[in-house]
Specification:
Helices cover 39% and strands 24% of the residues. It is α/β, with parallel strands linked by helices and 175 residues long. A five-stranded mixed beta sheet has the order 3-2-1-4-5. A hairpin with a 2-residue loop joins strand 6 and strand 7. The longest helix has 20 residues. The chain is globular. It starts with a strand and ends with a helix.
């Protein structure tokens, strides 16, 4: 029997994605569900699956982020980690660069260049737009999946995209 793979993008606007063995996908917005709802979601996924594993993005404080936002971010990550443990769902913490290297390919890349000065010389530095690159990868890999937060939204939601790509990373690595 095959596994169900869960990708968790923590954060206030984060998402949880489940990829089931039958090819079904389910998406849950973290900000539209309280902690008890999230517990019930993980319980439901586990009850409907023979074996479940999760990837939780291993993110840390962001440069120039306020103390309040950093604390909230850590709190949400801790709650999600606790819910996975409470539901006895094995999980792997994965840094963004790790899953991105597995999922992205060259045609997905959106790159810009910024000028920096080092030792009195101006240097052009390549910068990858991670959000746009992930959106391109998701569109390439999952062309039939609606990547908007909900039906009322007009734009793709990068949190939903990241959770989907992390679940796909877990599936590819058979974590």
């Amino acid at each position: 029997m095959e596994k169900t793979y869960i990708g968790v993008d923590p954060g206030v606007k984060g998402f949880v994605t489940a990829i089931f063995p039958n090819g079904k996908y389910e998406f849950y917005s973290i900000d539209e569900n309280d902690d008890l709802d999230l517990h019930r979601i993980f319980t439901s996924i586990k009850e409907r699956s023979w074996q479940v594993t999760a990837v939780l993005e291993d993110v840390h404080a962001l440069f120039n982020a306020s103390a309040k936002s950093t604390f909230n971010f850590g709190e949400i990550k801790g709650i999600l980690k606790g819910l996975l443990i409470a539901n006895e769902i094995p999980y792997t913490l994965v840094q963004p660069k790790t899953w991105q290297q597995e999922i992205w390919n060259n045609q997905d890349m959106i790159v810009s260049y910024k000028s920096i000065v080092r030792a009195g010389k101006e240097i052009k530095q390549k910068v990858v737009d991670t959000k746009s690159t992930s959106i391109n990868a998701a569109r390439r890999l999952f062309p039939t999946i609606d990547l908007r937060r909900n039906e009322r939204c007009k734009t793709t939601d990068d949190n939903k995209v990241d959770s989907l790509l992390m679940a796909e990373y877990a599936r590819r690595k058979n974590l």
